[in-house]
Amino acid sequence: MSVIKLVPVDLTIASSYSKSGGSGGPRANLTPLAKLGKAGVAHPEMALALKALSDAVAARGGDLRITECHRDVAVQQAARTKYDNWAKAGKPSPGSAAWNAATMKNAYVALPGRSGHNAGRSIDVHLAALKFPGAPADKQLDVLWECAVPLGWKPIIKTADEGTKEAWHLDFWGELKGVLDRLGYEQAALCGALLVGHGDLQGFPAVVQALLCRAGFNIGNIDGAPGPKSIAALAQALKITEADAKAKVTAKDESIFAPLLALPAL
């Protein structure tokens, strides 16, 4: 169930994967991100922001290559399982006796349905490929941020340090910035993922809550079980009685999606 359709990113956006297999190599040999199927789609406003970022990086002489964009919940679950396996094993270093590359991942992975990637609002950048002219290797991320932040992109780490885990990760919250500010990363990601059909609480009640959060209503966390706050907010949003609002939730009346989506994002 989704109320916003993910769209392919611009064909000029390069993935970091070669057309012949593997990764890296000349840009001309790279697969366009949009050609990677469901991995190459994004929320419409992030797709526009990604094109703007690509153009800004190119204007500075850099080479933007994306290693990851959208992930569906199944892909997120597989990645999270590998992260959990690594954590349960005591977080062994790659190459050590306890390390298993096939079953472990030594970088943080958000819970399924609660990642900006699931919402089509996040990218992972191939930092080593940026190669901004005149910038040393330990300042490439600084230049990327100079390009990205003015366009509305938000780095997930606080300082530009290439050695920090997740240094490669950028989010574009756009109309969900208010949700991020009020409820934090996980709830903003869940809200965004639900709206595009990739949350872990899939179902009519959770989508209604996501729409209400997007519109700035104070209903608390999205939990898939609308309580008095959600019902009161829905009644206010639709200008109906609370009894009618509860009835629409009970009936799973999808006709309410359009007017809720038409509300300003706050």
What does this structure look like?
- With 266 residues, the chain is an alpha+beta fold.
- It is built from nine helices and eight strands.
- It has a six-stranded mixed β-sheet with strand order 3-2-5-6-8-7. A two-stranded antiparallel ribbon has the order 1-4.
- Helix 5 crosses helix 6.
- The protein is globular.
- It starts with 6 loop residues before the first strand and ends in a 5-residue tail after the last helix.
List the helices and strands and how they pair.
Blueprint (H helix, E strand, L loop, with lengths): L6 E2 L5 E5 L11 E3 L8 E2 L1 H16 L5 E4 L4 H16 L33 E4 L14 H9 L4 E3 L13 E4 L4 H7 L1 H11 L8 H11 L13 H11 L3 H9 L6 H5 L5
Parallel strand pairs: 2-5
Antiparallel strand pairs: 1-4, 2-3, 5-6, 6-8, 7-8
Helix pairs in contact: 4-5, 5-6, 7-8
